[in-house]
Amino acid sequence: MKYDITTNKVPEMPNLGKGTECIKLLLTQASKDMHEPLVPMLFPSLGAHISGAEFQYPDRSWKEMCGQMANLVGGSGCNKGQLTELTKAICRDFSLHDETEMKKLREWAKISNSKSKSKDGPVKPDTPIFLPPANTTSAGFLENAIALETAGGRTQLFNFPEVEMADQLCGSHKYMSHLLRNIYDMAQAGALRATANGVSGNPTLRACITLSGVPVTVRKFYKNELHNGTFGRMVFSYKPREATRSGHIPRRGEFADNFYQQLDTYMARLDMTKGRFIIRPLNKLIDRLAQDMATLADLVDDDVLWDVSKRSLVSAWKAGCILWVLNTQTWTKAMGELVEWLVYHDLWSKMQIFADMLKDGDVNIQETSKAGPKNMLDSLPNNFNEAQLEALRLESGKNKEGTKAQLRQWVHRKFIEYSAQTGLYSKTEAYLKGNS
């Protein structure tokens, strides 16, 4: 495994090499301290530009690029607002489209009101909005989903500067979890909708979402959603508090004309992508990372980590599909390195923010977690016996009954080997070399 997420140290993002030029271009408009936290947050906005295209996941299912959701987490005043600036830049074409559609709607409303008592009033036009405002209601979301489906299955993108704003979209926090899961799974709305023109509405929910929030608020928002699948579907990107206080004010970009000219070239590639695609190098990478996730889960003996890693793989795979399109449908090593980092950064962020709540069901929301998954094999000496692992498991809050099964799994994965002569387990050379 390339990254260690069992420590508080942020997994270092790889160099953005060949094939990641669009991401590098976007980062020129962000302050350097926000480069790593912002990269995972860019893909929902980029993915919302791809419609009419499907990509085959390694399990042979076909997936669209909608349903991507990511949450930026950091302290107050840490420059999270730069995400909104970049979203506006990426979605400049969305805003122009929406302005035209809203003009149609205003004209219809004006004429309709003047003929309110007449049966000959104009039919309300379909006005699909690509970038709805953050205060969109649940009824407005569903109505827009119908219009977007009529417009060819387009995706609506929401950017919530504060995580609590998502509740309004869902009607209330009670229904937030269900709606977010349906968006991720590209489910249908599941209900008919009565309109002035008759009964309509059971659209496929095509949406991408980005959210931002401070750790306390984010922990409170998700505290009841950690084990129902909502948590795993959301990508998290955490910016920890800096160790030292700096008087330097970070510099942002200027969003000059030449930046937009370059960006428009990449946006055109996304908009023109239609059809079905299989990206074999990406799928091979995801298969290998799935093995790494199993290895990681065995080292820490953590079923929750194992469960959420499966959707971290899907989210990173979707980012890989977008990178492939941006790079004129060509795969590179640097793109693979970035996809791998996205998997580990998501898991590291989740554990930094929620590890204590995942482990103990703790509803204390005042601090981010300081205790991520623990690599128990690293905590043991190179030569150890069963009793030492049993004691370590008890110390880590795990039951002693799982000791033998964990030892068998470690032997199976060739992390350790057993000596019947000494009765001791020893870390293998391959394991020690891989963790040196």
TrEMBL record:
<protein>
    <submittedName>
        <fullName>Uncharacterized protein</fullName>
    </submittedName>
</protein>
